[in-house]
Request: fold
Amino acid sequence: MTIHRCWVYGDHINTDVIFPGKYTYTLKTPEEIAAHALEDLDPTFAAQVQPGDVIVAGKNWGCGSSREQAVTALRYAGVPMIIAASFSRIYFRNCINQGVLPIVCPELNVLLQTGDMLEIDTDSGQIAVHGQRFSIPKLSPSVQAILDAGGLVPMLQKRFGKV
Amino acid sequence: MSGYTFAEKALARAAGVSSARAGDILDVRPDLMFSHDNSAAIRRIFLEMGAKKIARPDRIAITFDHAVPAPTTKHAQNHAEIREWVKEQGIAHLFEVGRGICHQVISEEVLILPGETILGADSHSTHFGWLGAFGAGVGRTEMAALWATGELWMRVPDSMRIALTGTLTPGVTAKDVSLRILGNYGVEGGIYASVEFAGDTISTLSLDQRAVLPNMMAEFGAKNAYLPPDKAVFDYLDARRTRDYTPLYPDPDAVYAHDYTIDVSQLEPQIALPNQPDNVVNLSEALGEPIQQAFIGTCTNGRLEDIQAAAEVLRGHKVRCRLVVIPASSEVYLAATRAGYIETLIEAGAAIATPGCGPCMGNHLGVPAPNEATISSANRNFKGRMGTPDAPVYLASPYVVAASAVAGKIADPREVLPLSR
Reply:
């Protein structure tokens, strides 16, 4: 069981506001990428986010570009999981590959406000919010295996004998 | 037992299994894997994985398109790193600065064929449905994995069918159809789905027009999109291809999660208002809105017919706002020059730039100032898309963008044009 502070957003939050396209070929280090997370959505986020904070969003989180920095910017900022009513498909895959847990849960962004706390128990697959419980949908075994490895890079490092 | 969708057939073929159903997870070996200016970042991930040699360099393509010619030293270093890597790894297909946008160039070079599977590190990889291929976008880490192993897991998507019926009226295009689909069903209307087009409209569309539909389905949340290829597609491919192919068609009794029919014969020109591609209204509801810049180009609407449309509208006129025109490829640029379209555009006051993505995602070549409105033939108008969050972007067909450039405000091309089509 872990406790997380929430940043709550709406529907159709797209990758252009999560990580603007103009930075995609010039910013490289985790620090400089994290500094622009959610820049055009919530200018307070990058300065105030704490490791362990989670995103709680509405439908179609991460629609638009395939740019992976829309996930890594949040990962580098310390966000371990993203809860949304639904995810755009490339964003969902990018989460898995970066070892950031994507949780599909329709009701939460309506119940919560930024700054609220929620409890997550990934072992039992439960989220607790304001006394209510929500279940975390199971991923398919092959997809879960990538997350369990910590992402696609660590998984392939094993295959290529790097670790 | 019900028949198979296009997606079920295509992914089964790409995975080398006899059959597959929606929901199955398969290890897919794509016929082509491509990336662009992001290839330097992909290289760094590839090396971090501990991989040494690209598994299938003959099936890799890289195109310089997102920031070309390099606008800054950092962009130039990025390009230089990629060129070195291509040489070192023996990557078969590199398309240099000026050749054009990945989706257009790969289509012109015919590196992918009907029934094949193509994965690209770009969200508009749905594009290749125009020729009946399975095209899907992936992230950078996945492209690094594809370089390293030559395969990737894919979930076979549910499919939806969109039947288009009737013939478009003059001045109305596949872009208007795409925007209407987004307007009807929303930017998540096709989420995770294989969007499989059908209906009698398709064979009435030129190949340039057909490409717009699957391209724009990226904005619909689709995994891939598909148009059934016909003789027009086969004739184009046969003049250019280097290998054989077998096209795939969905079975008549395939099961679709949704089945929509749209009669396009009454459709008016459409426009997406800021800041979302499904914020779509009939053009008549937006007429007169002032704009400071017009942009014609991109993988969505930068082909020869798009530039021809702009030239038809602009012939004999002068623009009343900035107009940037960027052909989608060098082949388009050359054909448009030979046809006299480029001359017409320059005489009307347009600025022409090197084939590539241009200002679409805010890199260069026509980024707006804060509070300047742009009307664009591109695909996306999210807040900040063109470089600054305070610059509203409207999306429309090249006809509408050109007519608006002439008027200096959003305008109906049918009032300017002696419409021949």
Q: What stands out?
A: Chain B touches chain A through 51 residues (CB under 8 Å). Chain B has a mean pLDDT of 97.
